[in-house]
Amino acid sequence: MASGTHTDRVEPRSIAASGSAKRLAWIGLVFLATLPGCIPNARWYTPIHAARTSAPAPELETRSVFRDGTRTRVSLASLAPTPDVAVGRPTLATPEGAPCASGIPAVTLRTLSTSAPLTLGAAVPNGGVDVFFDNGQTDPERLLVDRPTVLDVPVYEGRPGATPKVTCLRIPLLDAKNGQVEYRQDPTMWIGWEFRVSAPLHRFADLDALIVAPFQVGALVGPLRLGVDFGLGLAAGPKHVETGEAGAGGVLLGANVQSPALAFGRFGTALQLGYLFESWSKGQDLVTRDTVSVGIREARAALLFMLVPRQPPSSAYDARTDAWSTGLSFSASLLQASGEEATPALGGAFFTNLAP
Fold first, then answer.
1. Helix (H, G, I), strand (E, B) or coil at 113
2. CB-CB neighbours of 224 under 10 Å
3. Which of 2, 92, 122, 290: CA 20 to 30 A from 253?
4. How many CB atoms lie within 10 A of CB 56?
5. Contact in structure between 309 and 289 (CB atoms under 8 Å)
């Protein structure tokens, strides 16, 4: 066996490298902690039965309605673009009025595929067009909220240099007469991330606190949110005898299920259950140069308090309460490892979930 003078000391360069790696890991965790934030007060709705126009050209179909705190965007797909047909400024109106005779004008138009501004009088581009309205103008009239609403689009037909033929394309957007849902936000997948801190009630596997930043992805199945966790972490603890280093770095993999959210305005709460497999590396053994690690299994239950987008504006719209959410969670878990007594832990997290 080599002498103690040779084996019990780590080269200064190795110590410096280890310290730099830990500093970078901490910076990364702090950066990830800043990613969750206030979600936009926005929802995307798709029509249950898309409205389509076929005459006069171009042929347009309603694809979605986006609504946030200040504006509403109506996305129209162009099914049969016609180069010799141009559009004027669309308006929102009630179906009782004459087409293109009155209504609230759009604030701006953009191409559906690239979001580039669309000049009035230009042809409808391939893909379609986004039409934006100011909620401050449309909401007082209850247009596209709970009142029958149509979108009138002036259409100019004719070749350059010729006198254009002016007609009006009328697209029914909201019936609002039978109380049925006409637009729905119904995502099937979700992604999320957390900055999570937990501490065992007493020192566990020579670790005092666990700090992890898991990324999450999963499916929305009925009222449940199912997901998979994977990420990195750091653990705080005393200096380990085998490695001469304090704390540990780890990776995790797990699964979780979240209950339906109960919402009160823009605030909601839900219960989440999860099970995690964690591998924590404490460094290299000073003698054998082998990696010293510990595997931890964590059964976790958390109560989530979240901020969610504003609820649908009327019964004509339906949306998943927590399609987007951000907030705080408080958890209790049970830590298990080979050769260690099962130990309870308490923790908290800052999270954000998004459903594309």
1. coil
2. 13
3. 290
4. 16
5. no
Tell me whether strands 91-93 and 189-200 are parallel, antiparallel or unpaired: unpaired
Cα–Cα distance, 94 to 273 (Å, whole number): 48
Model pTM? 0.74
* pLDDT (0 to 100) of residue 55: 61
Helices (H), the chain: 4-7, 12-34, 135-138
| Matching residue, tokens 């594309």 | 356
The two tokens of residue 79 are 């099914």
332 token code pair: 């209790």
Q: In this structure, are strands 317-319 and 183-185 parallel, antiparallel, or unpaired?
A: parallel
Nearest Cα to 169, choosing from 65, 44, 66, 78?
78
pLDDT digits (tens, 9 = 90+) for 327-342: 999 999 999 998 889 9
Instruction: For residue 114, give Cα distances in angstroms to 110, 169, 333.
Output: 8, 23, 47
How many Å apart are CA 266 and CA 258, to the nearest integer?
18
Q: How far apart are CA 237 and CA 283, in angstroms?
A: 13
Q: Nearest 5°: CA angle at 198, between 197 and 201?
A: 155
In which element (H, E) is residue 151 found?
Answer: strand 149-157
Main-chain phi, psi angles of 29, to 5 degrees:
-65, -40
- 211-239 mean pLDDT: 93
